UniProtKB/TrEMBL annotation:
Gene Ontology MF terms: nitrate transmembrane transporter activity; nitrite transmembrane transporter activity
PROSITE patterns: MFS
Record localization: Cell membrane; Membrane
TM regions (residue ranges): 26-45, 65-84, 91-110, 156-180, 186-207, 246-272, 284-303, 315-334, 340-360, 372-395, 407-426
Topology versus the membrane: Multi-pass membrane protein
Family: Belongs to the major facilitator superfamily. Nitrate/nitrite porter (TC 2.A.1.8) family.
CDD domains xref list: MFS_NRT2_like
Protein name: Nitrate/nitrite transporter
UniProt entry keywords in alphabetical sequence: Cell membrane, Membrane, Nitrate assimilation, Transmembrane, Transmembrane helix, Transport
Cellular-component GO terms for this entry: plasma membrane
GO BP annotations, alphabetical order: nitrate assimilation
Amino acid sequence: MMDQITQAGKATKINLLDFKSPSMRAFHITWITFFLCFFGWFGIAPLMPIVRKDLALTQGQVGNIIIASVSITIFARLIFGWLCDKIGPRICYTVLLIFGSIPVMFIGLADSYESFLLFRLAIGVIGASFVITQYHTSVMFAPNVVGTANATVAGWGNMGGGVTLMVMPLIFAAFVGIGYIDETAWRYSMVVPGVALFIMGFVYYFYTQDTPEGNLSDLRKKDAEYKAKKGDEKGSFFKACKDYRVWILFLAYGACFGIEITIDNIATLYFVDNFNLGLKEAGIIAGTFGMMNIFARALGGIFGDKAGKKFGLKGRILVLSIFLLFEGLGIMLFSTMDVLVWAIVTMLLFALFLKMSNGATYSVVPFINKKAIGAVSGIVGAGGNVGAVLAGFLFTSNEVSYRDSLFTIGVAVTVVSVISLVAGAMKKQHANDQTTILTEQELKAA
């Protein structure tokens, strides 16, 4: 059965067996692409114990590398969010994939802390893939399922973070198995995800389209004023910047996705150093954290859509606040675990709520300002990386243990959950609220 279509061409139903309609084709290709982006973005993370030894890195230098991997993404997400509104997601993703694959393939040329840091910084641009992914599904799906679509695509894509932590040590082991020494094997291992991203750039260009109606270039031949979202107006980015709700989501996403990519960066090192595990064993355990995305982020979107249908925007924010609260408490609990089994259990517990928080956040984004979905998505997405950068500074000091840093992060996430709850309860009507209310009424009728 083909997905049901609204008059605007947006899908009102997610039919996973549909690979032909523009909306569902974009759905599948975007999550697969985002999944592969994690191999490029975080492929080096599970190999850091080897890199640390090879390049003689200190804890402070490892911390700086973690910060570099996510800091440039802040600006990349803002830029690509704006570009999506201007030139559409298809061209944006193609450019990002092809050019982003270059530093991934060539990071193996690094022979010092400084050169490795620069490559890691360049690779961080790939993190902008998230904004393009969310933008593409936002313009392809109707209000009644857009939260679920966004969360599912992002969740299945984010699952790449977990699979990366499991698979990259195996790719490394394969190179060692055919005769390469450790110091060479990690370098060749990164060529594999780089090639995959390069190929995917062409797949995205030839097999997706910008909107349900077609590609922007074709639509503008018929109507020179056509934009990705009809009614999009000049200055929408700055209007989004003036909306306090955008910045609440900015904070919230920093407290969930920002912490997710921080854990992706340090999990293998954490289990190697604290529980004396080997690289493969630590990678598999750390990978289970990311594997929770196979269902948890989608659950966040589903709960967000259900709360929105019944209670409107405040319901969506309430769900988000509750998930953030349990995430923060779970991180604090995880940081105190000395027994491996309980460390794994508590990690999966906070991972569940963290990833549901991710999904719940982007069940709100399409309802803030439907004339600037790209701008809002970009700002909120950048918030995730700001959170990761701030968290990264906690791991740069030789005086503070990873356990203490994680406990501090848990406290910060709990504070953000309270801020989100208070902001969601505010009764003052925002200038854009009427748009949101109308959208929620459409959603209830769907």
